[in-house]
Amino acid sequence: MAVLKEIRKYRTLLLMMVPAMIYFLLFRYGPMYGIVLAFKDFKITQGIWNSPWAGFKYFDMAFSDPYFYVVVKNTVIISLYKLLFGFPVPILFAILLNEVRRAVFKKWVQTVSYLPYFISWIVLGGMFLSIFSLDGLINQIVQLFGHEPILFLADDAYFRTILVSTHIFQTFGWESVIYFAAIAGIDPQLYEAAVMDGANRFQRAIRITLPSLLPVISILFILRMTSVLDAGFDQIFNLYSVSVYNVADVIDTFVYRKGLVESEYSYSTAVNLFKSVIALVLVVGVNRIAKSAGGKENTLW
Amino acid sequence: MFKINGGHVFNFFLYLFMIGVIVVTLYPFWTQIMISLTPKDAPPVFNALKIPQRISFDGYLLIFQYKSVWVGYANTILRTALGVTLSLIFTALVAYPLSKAELPFNRTFTFIILFTMMFGGGLIPSYMLVKELHLMNSIWALVLPGMVEAFNVLIMRNFFRSLPESLEESARIDGAGYGTIFRAVVLPLSKPVLATVALWIGVQVHWNGWFDAMIYINDPNKQVLQIVLRKIIYDNNVQTLKQMMTTMGIGGKFSGPQLQATMIMFSVIPLLLAYPFVQKYFVRGIMMGAIKG
Amino acid sequence: MRVRKIVFMSLILVLVAAIIASCSKNNGGDSTNEPTNGQTESASGEPRMDVTFTTHNIDKVKPDAYALKYMQDKFNVNIHMVTSNGGDYREKLMLSVASGDIPDYMGNLPISDFYKLVDQGVLAEIPEDLIKEHMPKYYQYLERSIGPEPLKAFAVDGKNYALPGPWSIGKNINVVGIRQDWLKNVGIEKTPETIDEFEDMLYKFTNNDPDQNGKKDTYGMTSRGKLEIWDIFAPIFGAYGVYPGIFTLDGSGKVVRGEVEPGAKTALEKLAKWYKDGVIDREFLLNDWEEVEKAIIAEKAGVAQCEWGCFIPGEAFWEGKYDAMKKNNPKVNWVTMPGPKGPNGDYGTFQTNPIGDAGMFFGKQLADDRAKMIKYMDMFEAYSFDLETYVNVNRGVKGKTYEMTADGDYAWIPPYDTEEKQTEFGLGGTYAFPGAFNDYDFQKPFMTPKKYLKVREAAESVGVGKVDLMGPMLTPVNNEYKDRLKTFTLKSFYDFIGGKRPVSEFDKFVEEWKAMGGQKVLDEAQQIYDQKLK
Fold first, then answer.
1. Which residues of B touch C57 (CB under 8 A)?
2. Which is more confident, C494 or A291?
3. Which of B82, C84, C182, C255 could covalently link to C525 via disulfide, CB atoms 3.0 to 4.6 Å apart?
4. Source organism's superkingdom (chain C) (predicted)?
5. Which of residues 218-237 of A touch C (CB under 8 A)?
6. C113 to chain A nearest CA, in Å?
């Protein structure tokens, strides 16, 4: 009866959790039976439960479809590119902006820089469509150099570059806020000592600022690794078109199209389940790494 | 002397670079403003760095008369207010107990919540659930299904965990229970993380959200702004635009790009106006939340 | 303690209350505009049937709209209007169907969806005899627009599930318009017929100052070219008997694609030469409708393909966008032709297959509710083919919203001469109940005043050419490859015409095209043709 006693002791805490737990059971676990769709031949007229079992047919279908690998590859590539190029930008930006001495100007730059973060991809997408269009700014520059205009958003040579750069455009300011905070937390005495030693600004940035940021950088990096299979549905969905599917189609857009557009519900559920399993493995793995590297403070559970 | 010069050169490029950052960031907005101000019969400016020959505010005046936009605004504001409030309450209520190591079954609860971060039932069962709860075509379909995000629970839990033990200890010695401590001690200290989560939910889930509205809302009187926008920005074929302009009773006065740009600006302007006011809260919030989180 | 409990309980209560509140507000259904008169019975005592129709303009639907009331009373039904608007309509419909919520009638979906729905058992069979019995005029219209056995192409295992909505004028819709006043200015007496005469004209339109403004600021012909292969100077390809971008039959009953036929090579050679000499629009690859329109209206180009309605007064049919240029420049005068004749006597341009989709279909629940299916069919038939119903729903009340002129035309009575007022009264396209059965012969008196009848009839019969054979067919192989092939073909055509790649490499292009999947696509089309269309 120790358990009952425990429950009595912590009944307030347990009661506090009730509303959210009801929510999770109803809205999150409630629909989870839908996962069986991945193992069924979905017949609309028979409903999910009564549709005939299909075993691993849809997984076989995915794993034997060369296009499935294209999609997985795109997802990982786009995600890693965003990580590779997008991750350092806010760090650099924070360090550089920290060098700006005029407080008012600094505040202005900062404020402007995280503005795009608040604009939806529906709107941003519309803006970029016009900037990269045939008579848009980029093509005007291209033409200045005497080249033919290029349909950038329909060209698989450029599409990923555009994805990565517009992603950076949207997020660098916002993500730099974290690093600003960390920089602000650095003990000023460290800098004073470095100045006394004759270190210049560049040396101070490399020797003091950067190392002080390392813990934050590593935590954020680990967190990012867990979502490698999320390449940015909203962004891609609002920018891509058939002509760039071979480089731009990612798991989420593929699942969306298979499911909602082509009505291949079982297949799309199977692919999505595949994604979930990988994500689970990644999260558990990363959590373990975090635990052994950074102690309990930084773990997810 | 050289050193000082070096500093000057560095400063020069630093400032130049920062001005560049501002220009690049603001440029897309600038072009949209210019396009939205160019009347149909004036030469198009598109994206050149120049000002249209003639400026006309017709676009904005006509959008003012487009009922769907206002309906969209009202619904978006409603869903944001309702959604953020409910999310914050539910999330904080579950995050606090989880921050207590002594809570029985803590790891189990955490895993139950975390599991939903990776696994979901997919579109059809979710859709059927919303339908069976009779939430279709109602604001609740946009508020309830995504109300508590596992990730936000984690952020809040970590924040609560990072608060100094001593504060709660002294309250407990004074005879306060968990409920009182949560209300009187923890919550007042948690404004930054609450602000951060509120802003995240408010902007990304509700203000900019469209997918759920696309699926669950059929009634144009309950539609949200982003869907109204999407219709104009992406259904960019001549036929739709023409049909829409006839619906709006504005005939062929507009060029497609102008109408789109006007709509874009129209949706962005309120954000731009509200932005300076909320800015200081979220900066503090994310600073606190992120370092700890 | 008590306070806390109250807080928690009230939270849960709020949640529950909210859910209940929204339940009672929407009876779990789609957004329906409540029927006008909540009556469940009519005067005759028979219960009113509930039917649902879609509209693309639900914002403007009013429960007391004249058209709604008229149909409700005439057919003893309660009509619910639901929206069919926006690019997401299809996705929403399919999702709703997948979750078991099947609407009574659906339509305007891509052909592949139709077959998928049939396969899933979601649709009700519509026996051909039932159509003949309850929609006789509709059936005649099918026969006129498609030919004998009009439903054959859609049959699945010998059963019919579709009510196709053919666009009867599609077969002859596209014509080539030439500025007749320019012809005169450059000294050409008769409208060019052969490709040589056509070429001569293009050069003169470019070099001989056809607009007589003393500047060399014109060229011969413009064309769309940005989005679809069939848009690229289609009449020129037509002169060599090929139709790029669509499936057509060659003389021997073989299914071919124009872009890889030998005729295309000759056409590309011509176009490359013209491109080099600047007699065709050098920016054609950037052109969508808007750009073509700009070039024509700015009087830079003297020749363009368009629907025949473009070149005759708007009152005579629809829009008349190029005829409207006369307002700014009274000298503008258009002459239309089907396209230049090639060396083998071939001519014509891309035309639209009257059957592009499967039209309307019924949800499976109507298979067990024959009475309701028939009710819908009666309403479709009346709306699209019964004069009295059509007039009431589209023109309203004689003496109030419309009157007959001395010529026998239908004329609006002000203030109902604006679309806004008509919609407000409850008439017109907002209440187009079945959606897409446009019998242009039937609708002629409403579209074209008597005095324009001759103009319209002359314009209607000019266009010839070929349509996409596979338009209404399910082509999975093609669906898989078509985007890749299209992108590749567009790029190659741009390069050939623009001189970046010599046309002598055309055969190499054909090889590449076939290797990329083109051959599979052709084989599939041939097979479908042999099975279903021959």
1. 247
2. C494
3. C255
4. Bacteria
5. none
6. 8
pTM value is 0.79
Residue B288 in this model has a pLDDT that exceeds 60 = no
**Burial status of residue C277 (CB atoms within 10 A of its CB: 0-12, 13-18, 19 or more):** middle
Comparing C-alpha atoms, which of C238, C200, C236 is closest to residue C220?
C200
pLDDT at B235: 58
Test mutation, C22, C292, C306, C307, chain B, max B CBs within 10 A: C22
Beta-bridged to residue C105, according to DSSP, are C362
In chain A, residues with a C-beta closer than 8 Å to the C-beta of B47 are: 130-131, 135-138, 140
Q: Which CATH class is domain C171-353+465-533?
A: alpha beta
Walk me through the domains of chain A, giving residue ranges and CATH numbers.
1-53 (no CATH), 56-298 (1.10.3720.10)
**Percent above pLDDT 90 for chain C:** 43
Residues of chain C within CATH 3.40.190.10 domain(s) are 25-164+360-435, 171-353+465-533
Average pLDDT on C267-286 reads 91
Print burial letters for C124-161: b (CB count within 10 Å at least 16), e (below 16).
Answer: bbbebeebeebbeebbebbeebbeeebbebbeeeeebb
pLDDT in tens, C346-398: 999 999 988 878 889 999 999 999 999 999 999 999 998 999 999 998 888 88
Nearest-angstrom CA–CA distance, C220 and A88: 54
**Domains of chain B and any CATH numbers:** 1-56 (no CATH), 63-293 (1.10.3720.10)
pLDDT in tens, C59-111: 778 888 999 999 999 999 998 888 776 667 788 888 888 888 899 988 888 88
* Interchain CB contact of C534 with B (< 8 Å): no
- The closest of C267, C173, C170 to C471, measured between CA atoms, is C170
Is the CB of A45 less than 8 angstroms away from the CB of C121? Answer: yes
**Which CATH number, 3.40.190.10, 3.40.1400.10, 2.60.120.260, 3.40.640.10, labels domain C25-164+360-435?**
3.40.190.10
Report pLDDT for B190.
84
Q: Cβ distance C45 to C72 under 8 Å?
A: no
**Phi, psi for residue C47 in degrees, rounded to 5:** -65, 145
Q: Which among A16, A25, A43, A44 is the top mutation candidate for probing chain C, defined by the most C β-carbons within 10 Å of its own β-carbon?
A: A44
Q: What stretches of C250-389 adopt beta strand conformation (E)?
A: 255-257, 301-307, 334-337, 360-362
> Among residues B113, B82, B80, B83, which one has the least CA distance to residue B95?
B113
What pLDDT does B284 receive?
61
Mind giving me the DSSP string for C195-256?
HHHHHHHHHHHHHS-TT-SSS---EEE----SS-GGGSSHHHHHHTT--TTSEEE-TTS-EE
Most confident of A197-206, B30-39, B115-124, C250-259: C250-259
| Residue C456 parent element (H or E) | helix C453-460
Phi, psi of C334 (to 5 degrees): -110, 145
**A to C CB pairs, distance under 8 Å:** 49
